[in-house]
Amino acid sequence: MHVFRSSLLAVALLVTPALALASSAGQKHPEQLEWSFDGVLGKLDKPSVQRGLQVYKEVCAACHGLKRVPFRKLTDIGFSEAEAKAFAAEYTVTDGPNDEGEMFDRPGRLSDKFPSPYANDNAARSMNNGAMPPDLSLIIKARPDGANYVHALLVGYEDAPHDVTVPEGAYYNPYFPGGIIKMPPPISDGQVTYQNADTPTTKDQIARDVVNFLQWAAEPEMEERKRMGIKVMIFLAIMTGVFYATKKRIWSNLEH
Amino acid sequence: MTAPTIPQSPETKGSTAHPPEGGRRDFLILTAQAMGAVGAATLLWPFVDSMNPSADVLALASTEVDLTPIAEGQEIKVMWRGKPVFIRHRTAKNIEEAATADISGLRDPEPDSARHKEGKSQWLVMVGVCTHLGCVPLGNGAGDFDGWFCPCHGSHYDSSGRIMKGPAPKNLVVPPYEFVSDTKVKIG
Amino acid sequence: MAHAPLEEKPGVMGWLEYRLPIFGFAKGLVYDFPAPRNLNYFWNFGSIAGIMLVSQILTGLFLTMHYAANTAVAFDSVEHIMRDVNYGWLIRYMHAVGASMFFAVVFTHIFRGLYFGSYKRPREVVWWLGVVILLLMMATAFMGYVLPWGQMSFWGATVITNLFSAFPLVGEPIVTWLWGGFSVDNPTLNRFFALHFLLPFASLGVVGLHLIALHTHGSNNPTGIDVKGPQDQIPFHPYYTIKDFFGFGVFFLIFSAFVFFAPNYLGHPDNYIPADPLVTPAHIVPEWYFLPFYAILRAIVFDIPLWIVGVGVAGLTAMLRMPGCVRDLCKKCPFGILPVFGSFLPQKALSLKWTTILGGVAAVLIIAGLGGMVIESKLGGVLAMFGSILILFVIPWLDFSPVRSINYRPIMRWFFWVFVANAIMLGWLGSKPPEGIYPLLSLIGTIYYFGYFLVIMPVVARIEKPRPLPASISAAVLEKKHHDHAAH
Questions:
Q1: Which helix (H) or strand (E) holds C161?
Q2: If 0-12 CB within 10 Å is exposed, 13-18 middle and 19+ buried, where does residue A29 land?
Q3: CB atoms near residue C467 (< 10 Å)
Q4: With an 8 Å Cβ cutoff, is B20 touching chain C?
Q5: Which of A179, A206, C359, C426 is the S-S candidate for C295 at Cβ 3.0 to 4.6 Å?
């Protein structure tokens, strides 16, 4: 009876935070997709992450920054240091002040982070009708059910229902809170050309690739974390078992 | 560790509580203790390692410098690992003086050839921190030896950065560096 | 506490022990200390809470080595920890998840105390110190959550500090003083960091006192009856040391499952958005361990006219002035609960002096109330929320039943489990927007919460007929063993 009550308590306690995150009324729930990084043994699909980087660079970087990701980290997703260096050098970053006191531009280095398209938030807003395209470094962690949400958002644009008025310069997307979003549909079929011609360039595929990339950008430590977690849990399970056996032994001739 | 006996504190005197003796229990206890110790030690390492230089600090651990803008007879100062580094484009006169100087009487004897890369005697790269107590010496031929002079306590360095006069114990440190091309060095 | 050894033993340890008897002290504390032999696993949670305090201090210290408490860089410094510092992500997640684990353990520890009557004589001060530790923990956690300077950090801080403005006259100045400015901003962040670093060490001190108070009379046990002799006890080491280590193992398995595989499950995604004073999140929610108190805060949606308070004070004063009459009246009443109510009145009538004072207070309240003065709902909510924790201090006197353990109190048991379910419901309600049926449910939950302490505890203590207690702890243990054997 006590065990039943305790487990009921445990279940209730575990459910509460999930309920706390329930989305607001009217926002459509994103489709639950299977991601390679899901679960205890989850891993990143590195080729997909690389394609996602390409999509980010060619499509998203026009408006969205990625300021927390340094170029040197690209070696994590399968690039060599030389490739990462070359990738960085394609970018121009502002450095300074120099000895004359002026800021100057120079090619990117491994230690630099992805430069943002706008100098600051105010500049971003003024160029986007008051809307602020968020930096994408943490977007997957900053939205409930982030990976599924971002995917659904990217492919989920549709015509507004007849009872919804969409203001000028905005669009309808049922996955966005409130339904009215300032971002135009960013991807369409065949929008990018992948190096590997076998990979389809459907909206769905492009969106999956970008989500895989953004997942890595938000949690670069994920694979190491899960690997370590397996080792720790196995060790703890064995150790707890040994402690339990020891406990039973020590208590064995005591009435309790 | 021997099997713990029941301590005879007043409250437990006469208690029937008695953990069992026996080899099996000792092995178990030993394993339990060992695993606990291993767990604790393993837990400690991430904390210790977190104090080591972080990835962004390590990324700035080397700096590449383009030498083309430095004319002969000029020197520049660049930051490397939080410290100034002098890079001097030495004149022929500097090089000659440095190479032919008598090193036997020096406090820190070192031939000039050990202080520059082979075939690149015109380039002198040194950490611009006085080896006495850490001030940044003045350059451009300052001091009595046509090199550097530290205003804090009066150390004089020659055109090879060697200590000639004053309290500094060692020559100016040459950091690890290499020429990635004829016009570019990578320090660190 | 620590006694000078009579003679200096040989060796380095003996030399030290003679001058600072730390080994003997520790041995007496943990090794030899007699404990009841029948403690169940609910008694593990105290030591687990202690381990969590140490863990939070350790992880917090190493986070402090890399964190910067300035609004311009705070969020970035946390991301620096997550991305660049060696094992920074691990230390950060241990600290964030650790806070949740700490509260889960402490709540279980408190519920253990409530169920088994661990707050009763002679352990009232152990209980008080525990409530102080809970308050310190809540303040520490609240300020700690502000430090990453995310959206929830900022807005949670804004909402909760704004509560103090509910107090009349002094409210606004207090809030400005707390903020160090005219809104939550850099001065607020800086002082919260300083205090967040400090309070855990204050908690450490109070925990020390908590343990000293506990060791004065020793632990309670599941039967609630006192230890009668050495046959009821066993030395803490090795029995409870190994049981505690086993408990740590189970606990760390759960802790690690969250840290490594679901580190953000108990948190809120909005806190990965840098704080923006111009954009309020759709739903401002505190961390789960504050949700029940948040629900109580928002449950008071009505203003309370002062004249009602005045009438209440007047009525109470009248009853205390004529306790005999009231008691007789109550006895005549057919409704079962009223005689009990009458039995709570003191024998002696209230003195004329106090009757006049209280009568005067009642009169002032009534006049002010008739003039329109009210306790605003905002203030009502704040008083209810703080009251919900402060009431814990008074429990030893509210529940005066001589039987400690609810195992032997069949009526109380029913009310207790409803209390637990109610607390969980309040927690769930705290996460909901204040719309629809939720405010009403929150009010019902709040009424039950206070009713459990203020009404149910004293009434049940008065009228309940407990089950017969076992003769001793050893007898109870033997009885249980026979019961278990018979069942198989």
A1: helix C151-162
A2: middle
A3: 12
A4: no
A5: C426
CB contact under 8 A, A143 and C431: no
Q: What is the pLDDT along chain C (488 residues), one digit of tens a residue?
A: 567 888 899 999 999 999 999 888 888 888 889 999 999 999 999 999 999 999 999 999 999 999 999 999 999 999 999 999 999 999 999 999 999 999 999 999 999 999 999 999 999 999 999 999 999 999 999 999 999 999 999 999 999 999 999 998 999 999 999 999 999 999 999 999 999 999 999 999 999 999 999 999 999 999 999 999 999 999 999 999 999 999 999 999 999 999 999 999 999 999 999 999 999 998 899 999 999 999 999 999 999 999 999 999 999 899 888 888 888 888 777 666 677 777 888 888 888 999 999 999 999 999 999 998 999 999 999 999 999 999 999 999 999 999 999 999 999 999 999 999 999 999 999 999 999 999 999 999 999 999 999 999 999 998 899 999 999 999 998 888 888 777 76
The full set of domain ranges for chain A reads 27-69+113-220, 226-256
State yes or no: ipTM above 0.95: no
Is the separation of the CB atoms in B163 and B170 below 8 Å? yes
**Residue B26 in tokens:** 């000792």
- Contact at 8 Å (CB) between C300 and C377? yes
Structure tokens at B43: 């837990």
CB contact at 8 A, C253 and C261:
no
**Which helix (H) or strand (E) segment is A209 a member of?**
helix A203-218
d(CA C117, CA C94) in angstroms, rounded, equals 33
Yes or no: say if C402 and C117 are a contact pair by the CB < 8 Å rule.
Answer: no
Flag if C34 and B13 touch (Cβ within 8 Å): no
Q: In angstroms, rounded to a whole number, what is the distance separating the alpha carbons of residues B17 and C163?
A: 55
Cα→Cα distances C67→A246, B57, C72, C314, C463, Å = 42, 15, 12, 56, 57
Name the nearest CA neighbour of A57 among A78, A89, A87: A87
Q: Which residue among C80, C233, C239 places its CB closest to the CB of B11?
A: C233
Q: With 0-12 CB in 10 A as exposed, 13-18 as middle and 19+ as buried, what is A145?
A: middle
Question: Which one of C37, C83, C91 has the shortest CB-CB distance to B47?
Answer: C91
Least Cα separation, residue C242 to chain B (angstroms): 9
- Residue B71 to chain C, least CA–CA distance (Å): 39
For A27-69+113-220, CATH number?
A: 1.10.760.10
The pTM of this model reads 0.89
Contacts of C273 in chain A (CB under 8 A): 134, 138, 142
Choose among C246, C282, C417: nearest Cβ to A240.
C246
Which region holds residue C285: left if phi is over 0, alpha if psi is between -120 and 50, else beta?
beta
CA atoms in the 13 A half-sphere facing the CB of C67: 26
Decide if B45 touches A, using CB distance below 8 A.
Answer: no
